[in-house]
Amino acid sequence: MEVRTGLTDDNNEERSPLDKMPMVQPHPKPSRDESMTTPREIQDSPRSAGLAKRFKAFAFDYLIIVSYIVVLAGVTMVVVKTAGFIGLSLRWPEDPFLADLVAFITLILPVVLYFALQESSPKQATWGKRRVGIRVVNANNGALTRKQSFVRSLVKLLPWQIAHTCIFQMGGFTSAPEEPSPVLIAGFTLAYLLAVIFIASALISKKHRTPYDLVAGAHVVVAK
Hints:
Layout: H1 6-14, H2 17-20, H3 32-35, H4 40-43, H5 51-85, H6 96-119, H7 127-132, E1 134-137, H8 146-156, H9 158-169, H10 182-204, H11 211-216, E2 219-222
Helix pairs in contact: 6-8, 6-9, 9-10
């Protein structure tokens, strides 16, 4: 004889399809500390150095440049006096191209190498930048290669070299400079224009990057 329980039958009849669906457990709500945690790459991202810090660093480095110029002038005077004492006559080259070359080799190139070698070293900064607390890095926050650093420093000091070239091309620049030609005026204008662009880009660009930073793939950041 078959026995049926009303309770079982009633439960089967009253159970809806929604009751048969698996229950979805809600994800636990993240804690306040977890929700505010930033990715590691964001935490480790260095802050770009602004114009004020970069200008202050260059002011410190300029003390080294001026000191080098003073030493260079002193050594030159000693060499000229010594040469005259032994009967040799040393004069500044009259050829403007040769004079410009001598000035580049003895003055501008050593300054370029100072910046290039210091900023591609493990310290990633010149003496002035270390005092201010900034450094030069590549896109991966690592040190620049010697080539990158040299190109960056060369472009950075390009206005100085252009101005030197224009000065040496002026007739009688050591005594009575002549009126510069339109070409020389254009050269001086270019030198000043580049300097203004370098300063303005470091001031208004998003990451304070200058054209010589862009050319070398470099960033100037605040050291941790």
